Amino acid sequence: MKEVLEIIAKSLVDYPDEVDVKEIVNDDQTVTLELRVAESDMGKVIGKQGRIAKAIRTVVKAAASRDNKKASVDIL
Fold first, then answer.
1. At what angle do helices 51-66 and 2-12 cross, to 10 degrees?
2. Residue 35: which pLDDT band, with cuts at 50, 70 and 90?
3. 67, 37, 24, 69: CA torsion to nearest 10
4. Which domains does the chain have, with CATH numbers?
5. What are phi and psi of 37, to 5 degrees?
6. Secondary structure of the chain in the HEC alphabet?
7. Is pLDDT at 22 greater than 90 in this prediction?
């Protein structure tokens, strides 16, 4: 899941070297992925009315369900 998010984010931004994904496993076995990008790339990752962010979350959730896990994405 982390790799999927990294690939998607790096393909969207102008500064792919500044993309950072941190994976946190919670007590209830859900996975939280924290995505950090350059300040100038934040709009490209979120998109108009959050459409790109919603699409990213959907893809990550689909990848997680293949592994019988639950995942969420936080864009910081």
1. 150
2. very high
3. -20
4. 2-75 (3.30.300.20)
5. -130, 170
6. CHHHHHHHHHHHCCCHHHCEEEEEECCCCEEEEEEECCHHHHHHHHCHHHHHHHHHHHHHHHHHHHCCCEEEEEEC
7. yes
Task: Find the Cα–Cα–Cα–Cα dihedral 38, 71, 46, 2, rounded to 10°.
Answer: 40
- What letter represents residue 15's amino acid? Y
Q: What is the mean pLDDT of residues 62-75?
A: 92
Q: What is the pTM of this model?
A: 0.90
pLDDT over threshold 90, residue 67: no
Q: Is 38 in contact with 70 (CB distance < 8 Å)? A: no
- Average pLDDT value for residue range 11-40: 94
